[in-house]
Write a structure and sequence with these properties.
The chain has helices spanning 2-26, 31-57, 62-79, 81-96, 136-140, 169-182; strands at 104-107, 110-117, 121-126, 131-135, 144-146. The chain is built from 6 helices and 5 strands. The N and C termini lie far apart (74 Å). It is an alpha+beta fold. The protein is elongated and about 90 Å long. Strands 4-3-2-1-5 form a 5-stranded antiparallel beta sheet. A hairpin with a 3-residue loop joins strand 2 and strand 3 (121-126).
Length: 196
C-alpha cells in the first residue's frame, strides 16, 4: 500500500506540474492564480501520501501513537519554525499579491524579475542572470518595490556623476542634457531632472 501511495503521488505531482506549466503558458494573465493552485495541490498531495505511507507501514497501540505524535510535533515545531513562518508568509503573499510572476521588483535587497512564487520562497532572476531564492518570511517583513505595477515598460533611473572642481558645471549640464535628448529611450515628458 505504501509503495502504491508513493507511485500515485509521483504521478499526481507530475500531472499537476505539467498542467500548471501548460495553463500558465496559455493564460499568461492568470499565471499567479495557476501557480497558487498548483502549489496548494502539490502540498496536499505530499501530505496525503505521507499520511497513507505512515499509517499503512506502522502498526502501534493507541497510547504509543499519541506519545510519539506529541514528541514528534514538539520536535518538528522547533525544527521547522522558520519554515512554518515562511509558509504562512507565502500564503499571505499568495492572497495579498504584492507582485506576480513576471513583475520586476526589488525585494530583500535584490532587483529582478519574479520567476516563481511558492509557499516557502520566491525565486527571481537578476540582471546578471542569477537565480535568487528568497524565503517568504524575509519578504514579508521587508519593503517590496514593484516596478511593473503601473508602467511595465517605463523605468526611472537615478544616476550620479562627478566632475572636478575646476570643470565647468554649465558645460557638464549641457553634455548630460544633450545625451538625454538624443537617446530615444529617454522620455521628453516627464522631462529629465538634472540637479547639482
Amino acid at each position: 500500500v505504501a509503495l502504491l501511495a508513493i507511485a500515485i503521488a509521483a504521478l499526481a505531482l507530475r500531472f499537476v506540474n505539467g498542467l500548471a506549466e501548460r495553463l500558465g503558458a496559455r493564460f499568461s494573465l492568470r499565471r499567479l492564480l495557476v501557480q497558487q493552485v498548483s502549489t496548494i495541490l502539490r502540498f496536499a498531495i505530499y501530505l496525503v501520501a505521507i499520511l497513507i505511507v505512515v499509517s499503512s507501514s506502522v502498526q502501534l497501540e493507541r497510547e504509543a501513537i499519541l506519545a510519539l505524535s506529541g514528541t514528534i510535533a514538539v520536535t518538528v515545531g522547533f525544527a521547522l519554525k522558520d519554515l512554518a513562518s515562511s509558509v504562512l508568509a507565502g500564503i499571505t503573499i499568495l492572497f495579498d499579491r504584492p507582485f506576480q510572476v513576471g513583475d520586476r521588483v526589488t525585494v530583500a535587497g535584490q532587483y529582478g524579475e519574479i520567476l516563481s512564487i511558492g509557499l516557502r520562497s520566491v525565486r527571481l532572476v537578476t540582471l546578471d542572470d542569477s537565480i535568487v531564492t528568497i524565503p517568504n518570511n524575509r519578504l514579508w517583513g521587508d519593503e517590496i518595490v514593484n516596478l511593473s505595477e503601473f508602467h511595465d515598460q517605463l523605468r526611472r533611473i537615478d544616476e550620479t556623476y562627478s566632475i572636478a572642481y575646476e570643470d565647468d558645471i554649465d558645460q557638464a549640464y549641457a553634455v548630460i542634457q544633450n545625451v538625454l535628448s538624443k537617446d530615444e529611450r529617454c522620455l521628453s515628458e516627464p522631462e529629465a531632472l538634472i540637479a547639482v
